[in-house]
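subagent[fold] <- orchestrator: predict structure for attached chain, return tokens only, no commentary.
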Amino acid sequence: MENIPHLYHYTSPDGLLGIALSGSLWFTNVDYLNDLKESTYGIHKIAEVLKANYNSPTLASDLMVLDAPSPSSRGIFTFSFTEESDLLSQWRGYCPDGGFCISINHMYLKKMQEKFGIVFKKCIYSDSDIEALVRTEIVGLTNQEFKTHYDQMGLSSSQDIRRKIFEKTAFYSPFIKHMKFAEEKEWRMILRRDINITPNNEIVLRFRATKNLIIPYIALPLVPERGGSIFSRIIVGPSANMKLAGDACRALVMDPEKVSNSEIPYRNW
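subagent[fold] -> orchestrator:
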């Protein structure tokens, strides 16, 4: 994680307490994120590149079978961060009634990544970055190399390539976001449940309820770091009770130097 900058996660008081008391991060199934189109946007963009750059309209259209939300067909789970601390749009979007911007100790994240085989990448927004992702991670060939190899292959080999492209599309599509969200500078940790099963059953599928939905998630434990704290920084978000929230937060983490207040003059009450 040497090239990963300091990252932040915006959360509610319940979310902060959950992380602090359980020592775990909740990875949500990508088909159940807040934005209904988010889980399929990346698939559509990958299909566009395959159709335009690889002359594969049939393969591109076949990718649309991944459109239908299904935790059984796409066991992909994610936890999100941003490079931006104390960003107004993040407070409005994720903490409308008050909350916290937290930074997790890098060593905890590094050990979690290594232990559970998590892919940790920055989200991409531009067409050129999406084309590069398709070339390097999903197809693994230039358009000319793909055409040459695909045309010379037998049926079983071509079907094998299609299967691999399907699998990689399902895995990497959550890293693709609309250009309108570029200011968030989002990073995502991605876990594939079907291949990352540990012998001691630390990866268990759980469910939580919202107003009208049941959300599949995985509570993945942070690997303890001797003598270290889970949090490297906590920013108390704008609220009518900012002082009380900050005092309680300092008592919770037992390190007042790590807690500060938002500098944004935003009133949402």
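orchestrator: received. Logging for downstream: The first strand starts at residue 9 and ends at 11. The two ends are 39 Å apart (CA to CA).
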